[in-house]
């Protein structure tokens, strides 16, 4: 160790280097000044300024340059990069920094979670979420039964096309069919005890999609009969209804745009994403969400507001991650997978909702199939009937709120209206953000409403479900 310490008798190398640099610099300064005094030199070229690190500015005097000359001028009129006046916009590095910080802070959370709870991921538990009894599959049976309603719609349209049914009779059958589509699964889920909440939500989701599709099917066939009178037979006799029911769209069309072939690479990539993200969704829910929700029950019961807010903020992070993963899994991987398989050409399932600077923009762009359906079959028909824009928008949000509540309350077998109110709250929120916030502030407000709004609803439903199903059972042992 000590052998490596330099002998103090020898002049330090650093001093010599500094001395040489200073001498060279001084020489260049004197050289430049001398030439400027003499008035004729090749050091400077006309119309230019020269730079020399740390030595000041000499303006051009019409001199010619010497290639080896060190530049003398190092300052110019300029703003600091972080001042808005600089016009600097490249913050790519800052974005990377955010990602690194995000990964690091979440790695810490991940470790903390593992140390506190151990591994909670349990694939068997997932199966039990769908099935109470392995020999009874009520949700799957419900989905299979939905074929009856598809066939009723097809039969009605064929009869309408052939002129056997009058328009009024056809409309009546469609209305009854659509009403039963909403009521039948609801009653089944409420009355059959073996339907689990997750199984019920899956079945009701399928029926809701079918309701929207058959509503569109009815409307488009009627429009065709009105406008394409000569070709109406061929329209309704087509058996493309099952293609439409399977395709990733809610809006019916006689001829969907089709891609030329199935790209196997694309298909397999989407399939891989679907499988991977399903595991991730299940794993993160069990390992991250469930413990936080469980630990939030007591503060909620005690109405301990500071702890409630702390749990809400803790829940906001995993909930938001899961929502983002779900978005990619559903709107990109799954829909593209089905579309590729069916050679369905229109792949616009979402637009750039993440850039939303207003709540309105978010709802126009995040779920394109639903938005398209709302515009085509509900919003525009209302406007055409003379309803005002505000009334039509409110009606759309009301219908959307109804379906959100339907999909949550019925499977949980409790009616609390949190989802309904969350959806209806979008109207005043849209007004507020549109009126008072612009640009990045508007974008931040949209993100905040997504990050905070959803966990509030999740906590409310879970708390109420817990109180109804566990506390009441514990209070009444005879009920068990
Ligand atoms: C309510 C909702 C439909 C409003 O949509 P919007 O795009 O803001 O509505 P706009 O007023 O801008 O107009 C939409 C269309 O109607 C047309 N329109 C507007 N006023 C019109 C009028 N008086 N007469 C005829 N057409 C009119 C516009 O030209 C536009 O047509 P385009 O789509 O062909 O360009 C939309 O916010 C929505 O879909 N909300 C619900 C979303 C939802 O619940 N999603 C669930 C996801 S889980």
TrEMBL record:
GO aspect biological process, one term: triglyceride biosynthetic process
Pathway: Lipid metabolism; glycerolipid metabolism
Sequence intervals crossing the membrane: 16-38, 94-115, 135-157, 169-192, 198-216, 312-331, 415-433, 445-462
One Gene Ontology CC term in the entry: endoplasmic reticulum membrane
Coiled coil spans: none
Active site: 404
Keyword RNA-binding: no
Presence of the UniProt keyword Transcription in the record: no
Principal localisation: endoplasmic reticulum
Reactions the enzyme catalyzes: all-trans-retinol + hexadecanoyl-CoA = all-trans-retinyl hexadecanoate + CoA; 1-O-(9Z-octadecyl)-3-(9Z-octadecenoyl)-glycerol + (9Z)-octadecenoyl-CoA = 1-O-(9Z-octadecenyl)-2,3-di-(9Z-octadecenoyl)glycerol + CoA; hexadecane-1,2-diol + 2 hexadecanoyl-CoA = 1,2-O,O-dihexadecanoyl-1,2-hexadecanediol + 2 CoA; hexadecan-1-ol + hexadecanoyl-CoA = hexadecyl hexadecanoate + CoA
Protein keywords: Acyltransferase, Endoplasmic reticulum, Membrane, Transferase, Transmembrane, Transmembrane helix
Membrane topology value: Multi-pass membrane protein
Sample GO molecular function, one term: diacylglycerol O-acyltransferase activity
InterPro entries: Diacylglycerol_acylTrfase1, MBOAT_fam, Oat_ACAT_DAG_ARE
Source species, domain of life: Eukaryota
Subcellular location: Endoplasmic reticulum membrane
Quaternary data: Homodimer or homotetramer; both forms have similar enzymatic activities.
Recorded family membership: Belongs to the membrane-bound acyltransferase family. Sterol o-acyltransferase subfamily.
Protein name per the record: O-acyltransferase
């Amino acid at each position: 160790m000590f052998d490596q310490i330099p002998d103090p008798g020898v002049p330090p190398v650093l001093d010599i280097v500094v001395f040489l640099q200073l001498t060279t610099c001084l020489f260049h300064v004197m050289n430049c000044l001398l030439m400027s005094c003499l008035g004729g030199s090749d050091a400077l070229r006309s119309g230019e300024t020269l730079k020399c690190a740390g030595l000041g500015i000499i303006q051009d005097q019409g001199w010619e340059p010497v290639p080896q000359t060190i530049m003398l001028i190092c300052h110019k009129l300029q703003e600091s990069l972080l001042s808005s006046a600089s016009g600097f916009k490249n913050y790519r590095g800052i974005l990377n920094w955010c990602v690194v910080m995000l990964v690091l802070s979440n790695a810490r959370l991940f470790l903390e979670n593992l140390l506190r709870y151990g591994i909670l991921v349990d694939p068997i538990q997932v199966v039990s979420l769908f099935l109470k009894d392995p020999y009874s599959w009520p949700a799957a049976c419900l989905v299979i039964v939905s074929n009856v309603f598809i066939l009723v719609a097809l039969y009605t349209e064929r009869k309408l096309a052939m002129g056997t049914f009058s328009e009024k009779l056809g409309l009546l059958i469609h209305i009854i069919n659509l009403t039963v589509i909403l009521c039948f699964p609801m009653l089944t889920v409420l009355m059959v005890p073996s339907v689990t909440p997750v199984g019920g939500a899956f079945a009701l989701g399928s029926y809701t999609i079918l309701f929207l599709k058959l509503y569109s099917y009815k409307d488009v066939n009627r429009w065709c009969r009105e406008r394409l009178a000569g070709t109406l037979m061929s329209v309704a006799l087509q058996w493309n209804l099952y293609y439409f029911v399977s395709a990733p769209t809610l809006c019916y069309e006689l001829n969907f745009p089709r891609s030329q072939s199935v790209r196997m690479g694309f298909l397999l990539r989407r399939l891989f994403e679907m499988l991977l993200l399903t595991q991730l969704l299940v794993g993160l829910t069990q390992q991250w969400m469930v413990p936080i929700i469980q630990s939030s029950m007591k503060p909620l019961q005690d109405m301990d507001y500071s702890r409630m807010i702390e749990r809400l903020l803790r829940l906001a992070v995993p909930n938001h991650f899961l929502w983002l993963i779900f978005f990619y899994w559903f709107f990109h991987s799954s829909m593209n997978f089905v579309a590729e398989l069916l050679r369905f050409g229109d792949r616009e399932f979402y637009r750039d909702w993440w850039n939303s600077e207003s709540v309105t923009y978010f709802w126009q762009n995040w779920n394109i199939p639903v938005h398209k359906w709302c515009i085509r079959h509900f919003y525009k028909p209302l406007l055409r009937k003379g309803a005002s824009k505000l009334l039509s928008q409110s009606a759309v949000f009301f219908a959307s709120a109804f379906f959100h509540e339907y999909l949550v309350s019925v499977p949980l077998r409790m009616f609390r209206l949190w989802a309904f109110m969350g959806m209806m709250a979008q109207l005043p929120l849209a007004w507020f953000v549109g009126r008072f916030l612009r640009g990045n502030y508007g974008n931040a407000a949209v993100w905040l409403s997504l990050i905070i709004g959803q966990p509030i609803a999740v906590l409310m439903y879970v708390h109420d479900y817990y109180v109804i199903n566990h506390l009441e059972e514990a209070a009444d042992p005879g009920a068990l």
